[in-house]
Amino acid sequence: MDKIKSLAIKYKNILQNFSYLTILQVFNLFFPVIIYPFFIDLFGLDLWGKIVLAQSLAFFLAIFVDFGYDRYATKEISIHRNNFKKLSEISSCVILIRVVLGIIVFNLFAIVVYNAPFFKGDEVLYLVSFFVNFNFILFPKWFFLGMERMKYIVLINVSVKVLFVILMYVFIKDKSDYLLVPLFFGLGAFVGGLIGIKMLFSFKGISFKIYPFKMYYHYIKSSYLLFASALVISIKDRFNIFIVGYFLGMQEVAIYDIGMKLVSLIMQPIESVNGAIFPKVAKELNMDFVKKVAGYSLIYVISVIFMAQLFLAYIFDFLNVKEIIFEKSIRLLLFIPVFLTMSLFLARNCFIVHDKFKLLFSSMIWTSLFYLVLVTCLFLTKNTQFDYLVLSVFLVYIFEFLYRYMLSKKYRLLE
Predict the structure, then answer these.
(1) Which of 137, 249, 278, 333 would bridge with 259, disulfide CB 3.0–4.6 Å?
(2) Torsion angle of C-alpha atoms 211, 69, 159, 167, degrees rounded to 10
(3) pTM of the predicted model as reported, rounded to 2 decimal places
(4) Residues 371, 377, 382, 386: is their CA dihedral positive or negative?
């Protein structure tokens, strides 16, 4: 009992952070459970697939808006948390850079949408879907993570999603209301972002300031490798859904999205754990601690995968999908978290805390090249079928983990 108390005191901040992030992840777990059955039943798989594809493209563009600051700024805030002048500098620069990037990216996206044949007839859907990026443009998640004030992230995110659910049930009544889905998502992101900024600058000693251009250049230069890494790795994480939409159809997009959402739900607690321990690991570089947490996380993941495989038919039935199309492929997707869990620990709490951004970037480059080779082979052999695309993604996640583990052993990052 005394040992448990001493451990609780020693890891008080981590336990608090994990608790808050777990609350958020539990809510995120039930959020799709609330909205997916409603939307799939109302819109059908084809229209829902079209909405999902538009949202997926918006989230891909978020990479250009975020520019790696969710990781870089979190680390800087954690290091300088007691230096209010530095906190003001980091916060002011990151927020302004993101706003400018958001404006630039939206305008370039609009030009593409109104000129590319693929978007014809759905221009408004794709442009309105972009508004979800207010969550990246405005909301300072990186600040609250670095300061270990996870409760602000939880309160704002939960409130925004509750607002969305209320608006959804009040205003969305039939298929003709489908544009309200991205509109309400964007509205929630905008309101949450404004509240987050207000809370950030309510911290004593922190204020918004305009700095010389060289200061903004410094922050752009410092995070560009993380941005490049995120952009490169998005090739394997996000391109598959675009390939499915382009070569197969919107119903297949909806099914693939459900499979990947299940993967995401399994991984959400792992994301919480990684985020909760990151500030501590960044300061102490205790790799034994990281390995221990990673081991427990892997046990959790395997247990949840077993349950998901067992009840998969009931899950799809609950989502108003009466038949599990491509069942074998969906079951294969569910094993991805085994390898993704280890990859995530290696990336965030090994490479990043050791400032090995180039190694992280290297792993992403080779992983993405491996994915492109596989997809190119499918294209050349005219095998761009759902099952083969899923198998390609599965093999890519295995490759990513093995390559990162090899680098960590080679450069003794886990010792």
Answers:
(1) 333
(2) 100
(3) 0.77
(4) negative
